Amino acid sequence: MNAKDGGMGVDVVITEHAQFEASRRNIPEELIKSAVETPQQKLSSKKGRVIVQKKYYDETEGKEMILRVVGIESVEEFRVITVYKTSKIDKYWKEGG
C-alpha cells in the first residue's frame, strides 16, 4: 500500500452514481472518505464487492446512524459504487466485527 495522507494509502474514487446517491441522501463526501479510510467494519459482499461501515451521529436525523459504503477495492483504489445511511444498527452492525 502507498502511504497517502496517513490513511489506507488508496485513492477513494466516487462514481457518478454514488455521487448522485450521496447528494440525494444528504451524505457529505468527507464522511464517505472517512468510512473508506478508517472503517469500523469491513464486510464481503456479492460480485466481489466490499461494504465498509461506520457509526456516526447524524445531526439532521438526530440519532446514531450507520454509513454503509459499497465498493470495489484494489491495491490502488477503492471505487465507491453506492452509499447509504441507515438507523437499523441491529440489522447491519456485526457484533465482534
Keywords:
alpha+beta, 23% helix, Nuclear Transport Factor 2, Chain: A, 39% strand
Task: Describe the fold and architecture.
The chain has helices at residues 16-24, 29-37, 89-92; strands spanning 11-14, 41-44, 50-58, 63-73, 77-86. It is α+β, with helices and mostly antiparallel strands and 97 residues long. It has a five-stranded mixed sheet with strand order 1-5-4-3-2. Residues 1-8 have low confidence and may be disordered.
Short overview:
Helices cover 23% and strands 39% of the residues. By secondary structure, the protein is an alpha+beta fold.
Walk me through the topology.
Elements lengths: L10 E4 L1 H9 L4 H9 L3 E4 L5 E9 L4 E11 L3 E10 L2 H4 L5
**Low-confidence sequence ranges:** 1-8
The CATH topology corresponds to Nuclear Transport Factor 2, Chain: A
Which strand order spans the largest sheet, edge to edge or round the barrel? 1-5-4-3-2
Radius of gyration: 13 Å
Q: N-to-C terminal Cα separation, in Å?
A: 23 Å
Indicate the CATH class: Alpha Beta
Number of domains: 1
Structural class: alpha+beta
* Element-level helix/strand string: EHHEEEEH
Query: How does the major sheet shape up?
Result: 5 strands, mixed
Oligomeric state as shown:
single chain
Shape: globular
